[in-house]
UniProtKB/TrEMBL annotation:
Domain ACT: 361-431
CDD domains linked: ACT_3PGDH
Keyword Magnesium: yes
Transmembrane regions: none
Necessary cofactors: Mg(2+)
Name this protein carries in UniProt: phosphoserine phosphatase
Pathway stated in the Swiss-Prot or TrEMBL entry: Amino-acid biosynthesis; L-serine biosynthesis; L-serine from 3-phospho-D-glycerate: step 3/3
Catalytic activity of the protein: O-phospho-L-serine + H2O = L-serine + phosphate; O-phospho-D-serine + H2O = D-serine + phosphate
Amino acid sequence: MKNYYIIDFDSTFTQVEALDELARISLENNPNREQILKDIEGFTNLAMEGKISFRESLAGRVALLQANKEHLEKLIKHLKKKVSKSFDRNREFFKQNAETVLIVSGGFKEFITPVVSRYGILEKNIYANTFKFDEQGQIIGYDENNPLSYEGGKVKLLKELNLQGRIFGIGDGYSDFQLKESGLIEKFFAFTENIARQSVTEKADHVTPSFDEFLYVNQLPSAISYPKNRILCLIVGDVPEISAHILKRDGFSIRVKESFEEKYTKDVGMLLLGDGVEVADEQLARADKLKTIGYLGDVKGKLSRKICNEKGIVVFDDKKNKRTNAEFIPRRMADFINNGDTDQSRNFPNLILPKKLKGHRLLHIHKNVPGILAQINSIYAENQINILSQFLMTKGEIGYVVTDIDSNYDKSLIKQLKQIENTIKFRILYKQ
């Protein structure tokens, strides 16, 4: 049974609403620009929340645009730079599923096709409205016979297509939920990487903060090993907003609290602490998912380095209290999660790794005892693994082996590596 993927365009495949962006371009020199833009955005939001019909919203927006083909060319260039990050990094998925990925949008083919076709999405699978132009190339309307110009147009289109298989819908708006409501699709995933509309998320089968999350929950091949939105980053104490912004922009799930609340101990993956915050040994010892701690100041005496070493937690701090701490520390934390880098860590050997990764990167944290590397490489040899590159560094009680290998290997390899005596933590990292 085939899987079909019905994907929205505006605020889903791209980070923005294309008609709103087109208006910003076409109205650049209009003295009433700000008010018109506000009116256009209002039409967009009312339709997305299901408060007015889509056709009413579309007609209202197009009438206000005052756009032409030259404006469309500028828009296309802009939209190519505004593809949602998680869609952009999963290009390979679209190439491999070209026959069953459909873009279904209330937007317009004139700007959608040039953007999504770069990802291997077939033109025959792009369903959207089309503009009408006058002889001077000015937009004067749209094809009113297109089902996607009507309220419930996506439902009508899908009935006409009569796809035979499991159908998944991904989008941010009410018209996307209508596909689920109609019974035509198996599951509706509310996409919130760019905008979260409560009227939509509360009705979704699953809220997906990224396309990586969608691929992960459906056990489909993904460009990264684990969705970053599933890694909880807890920020405690006096931490500047820029720190949270850096980590949130990178895709991590952020919680800002005045103290390290007990309910987060079991699930926290990253911990960013303001100067003066202390973490109890008992709490730190129970934080089994915790991978890295950032401390905006000198961490000495504020948490147990011994426990961090025993649990393989990488600590970054700045005992010199530099002004750039608020940006420097969270970036170091993100570099460890994203790439395995431990550069300028307080307790780990300092290692800067190649950013370009073709296969899978296996991170093995262990007690610094003789023979670990020999055991690791013996397992690789037994499994006929092609090693692309390998790095080993030690510091005090900690040993850190990073190995890049071809992605074609039996999953039993991972179990064997985890079972090596004196292993502290093991993680797989891959990205495209």
